[in-house]
Amino acid sequence: MELNKKIIALSAVATLSFNAVADEELQDMSDPLAVYTQAGIGYTDKGLNLKVGQAYDTGNPVTMGMHVLELKGFMGEDLGWNGDARKGNDNSVDSFRYRHFGVDLTNGRGSQIDVNMNFQTYGMKDDYSRGETGTQGSASYSFIQALPKMGPVNLYPLAGVGVAFGDSFEADRAGDAQAQDRWDIHGTFYVVGMYGKLEITDKIWLNYNPMYLGTMSGSDFYKSNAFGLDNDTVFAHEAAISYQINPRSNIRYFANWTEHTDFADGDHRIEYNYQF
């Protein structure tokens, strides 16, 4: 599960600098929690991604907010490089992600609404070899807190809860997951993790964003198989290396994998971002 990410601006009290939306000064694009209007395009192993983000005035001088929408995996058959039909590569959009971020500038505490819809989810095992779960989605709400900066390191712990929904599915006698002709709410889950940044130079930085997810309630099948066949939890990893081309643009390489998926079999992308 891909979790990335340029989310919220946090106040100087939390040892991070920010500017109000109305301020014309550019934001620090290396800050994982910066708020600014932006656009990005990514080249991935499953095709192209497009991202747009819009910072807005909340009407409260001590809060800020931003909407971010991403379309993922289109032109995958023609441009994706993994060539794995089991992962559903075609030229249509594979998934979209919507995030809403808010921050209280008085205490450096943020909130995040994260909605994901996956239109091509094949299989319930690491090798994608069995069954088809159809269109699946999730929505979660999390709190994020900036910690004081420690030399070149910034840490932002996160905790939240969410709900999984989509095409109903069940396992047949062979253990394959087959989509049913209806939607339902499968169950609920929790997520705890962290966004992390390590500054290498004023133009190069690393991010590591580990997340641990587990089921809380729902159908027996969901609680036992939410994160792969016979897996009710998952430890997910996201790592990135970034280069700031100029104050308005950067280029970034991301890798996403889990304890159930090798690094080489995870999701990989190169992304260009521009700040307006």
TrEMBL record:
<feature type="signal peptide">
    <location>
        <begin position="1"/>
        <end position="22"/>
    </location>
</feature>
<protein>
    <recommendedName>
        <fullName>Porin</fullName>
    </recommendedName>
</protein>
<keyword id="KW-0732">Signal</keyword>
